[in-house]
Amino acid sequence: MPFFRNSAVNLLNLHYGIHTVVLSGADAFFLIYLLKTGIPIPGVLVSLALILIVRFIIRPFVIPLGTRFGLRTLLIAGTLLTALTYPLLAAVRGIGPMLAVVIAVASIGSTLYWTAYHAWFARLGDDEHRGQQIGAREALAAIVGILSPLLTGWMLVSFGPAVAFGASAMVGAASALPLPWVPDARVHPQVPGMLRAAFPAVLLFAADGCVGAGNVFVWQIALFVSIDENYLGYGGALAFAALAGAVGGMTLGRHIDAGHGKRAVWYALSVIALMVLLRAAATGHAALAVMANALGSLGYCLYIPTVMTPVYTMAKRSACTLRFHVATEGGWDLGGAATLLAAAFATARHIPLSAAILLALPGVAAIAVLLRRYYGLVPAMGLGPRD
Fold first, then answer.
1. CB of 188 closer than 8 Å to CB of 263
2. pLDDT by residue (tens digit) across 177-208?
3. Which of 16, 27, 201, 325 could anchor a disulfide with 119, C-beta 3.0 to 4.6 Å?
4. First-to-final CA distance of the chain
């Protein structure tokens, strides 16, 4: 398999696989735990929207940090700060100062982490194998996601949040161990014209933020409520979903690299649109909610390679991958925050969670249009045209 020959990408994928223990465990319980502390659903959604708004404000400061220290240092710092979030989360007891601390630390950690990670992955990846490299990453994440939510739910019930989130923090910190062996990427001090070059990907990420807010974050709350707010049941539903989607990304990634991106858009976006509709219909019905969640894991294994292949390709062909992803992640923050605030407004007025999930559909439609336009310009080798 030639896409496994890139040792730098393999090490990044190893890091991501370990980090996914936290993403599919403690991070998947982030909103759920806030809800269990007594914060009402609109307050939980606003809390997450505030994290995204703070991220948008501070994200430009990543550029001078990257210029001085390089992408590897940024990613290690983001990894460790993200890990620190979870012991702090365990100390939250409702709306108060500790919640503000969690919002601040989560904002800084995730800003450093995701901006540096995407920029580094884009820089090191191979255009001709990018879909499969992303697919391998997502397949690994799906496999890890089978056990992690079960263990986190069990630990929350058996030992409480301090132990459960503390263990997740240690695993999250340990995920930084492969990173010193990945070749560093330096950032040039001055690169003009980046916002214009990144604008198509900014639009794509803004739409993806809308999808993530409705189809992931609001859905997490809806799923938890649908299974009677049971930690173990919620963890089991996530584990079942990960099992269902463990091989989808590899299959579609190969399809994209073979030059069939336009077809992949229909596969992935049709599944995502169906998933949004099913999740909205299943809210409040435990068995249906578990099945709709399982379809979601398969959907995202198809969706992420389809979306991220052009973004990483455009980033690598730009003058600076870090500045490119500062712009695109800013678009994600705006799209996600706007959708979360709309969902908070709706739920505060007793509009059902099912309607808030449907807020993801405009994002799905926008992504379908943008990706069809991109893949329509892609030659058979799977590369986009140069700017």
1. no
2. 999 999 888 888 877 777 788 898 999 999 99
3. 325
4. 30
Q: Which helix (H) or strand (E) holds 27?
A: none
- pLDDT band of 387, cuts 50, 70, 90: very low
- Give which of 17, 27, 22 is closest to 172, Cα–Cα: 22
The fold for domain 2-376 equals: Growth Hormone; Chain: A; (1.20.1250)
Q: How confident is the model at residue 325 (pLDDT cuts 50, 70, 90)?
A: very high
Estimate to the nearest angstrom the gap between the alpha carbon of 325 and the chain centroid: 14
Query: pLDDT at position 386, please?
Result: 34
What does the domain layout of the chain look like in residue ranges?
2-376
**Cα gap 52→333, rounded to integer Å:** 5
Find tokens 């799923």 and name the residue.
223
Task: Locate all alpha helices (DSSP H) within 125-247, ordered by sequence.
Answer: 130-158, 161-174, 194-212, 219-226, 231-244
Burial of 21 (0-12, 13-18, 19+ CB in 10 A): buried
- Residue 156 pLDDT class (50, 70, 90 cuts): very high
* 80: enclosing H helix or E strand: helix 71-90
